Amino acid sequence: MKKFIITINENKEITDIGNSSIIYIFENISSYEEEVYSLLEKNTMPMRELETLVNSWGGKIRSIPVKTLIESYYKNILF
């Protein structure tokens, strides 16, 4: 079964997630959230440099492909 998946944010913007979409999870950066968001929004820093910066704050970045999340969801769903 091929799945067509979209996301809709609170502003009603629709995005096709595609097979290459990745979710980044930032841990332990509560006082730096705005800075991280700004860097990502402006696309001014490569992800490896951002990871180094987040690590220097005592935080961590985890990434997971959306495709993996969906496969896990279908694998664990209870009917």
Show the helix and strand layout.
Elements: E1 6-8, E2 14-16, E3 22-27, H1 33-42, H2 47-56, E4 60-65, H3 66-76
Main structural class? alpha+beta
How far the N terminus sits from the C terminus, by CA atoms, comes to 17 Å
Range of helix content: 25-40%
List how many beta strands DSSP finds: 4
Specify the oligomeric state: single chain
Please state the average pLDDT score.
Answer: 85
How are the strands of the biggest sheet laid out side by side? 1-2
Number of helices: 3
Biggest sheet features: 2 strands, antiparallel
List the secondary-structure elements in sequence, H or E: EEEHHEH
Q: What is the overall silhouette?
A: globular
State the low-pLDDT regions, or none: none
Total tally of structural domains: 1
Strand content of the residues, in percent? 15-25%
Radius of gyration: 15 Å
What would a concise description of this structure say?
This protein is an alpha+beta fold and 79 residues long. It has helices at 33-42, 47-56, 66-76; strands at 6-8, 14-16, 22-27, 60-65.
What report would you give on this structure?
The protein has 3 helices and 4 strands; from the N terminus they run βββααβα. The chain has 79 residues and is α+β, with helices and mostly antiparallel strands. It has one domain (19-76). A hairpin with a 5-residue loop joins β1 (6-8) and β2. The longest helix is centred in the last third of the chain and has 11 residues, at 66-76. It starts with 5 loop residues before the first strand and ends with a helix. 1% of the residues are buried. The model has no long low-confidence stretch (mean pLDDT 85).
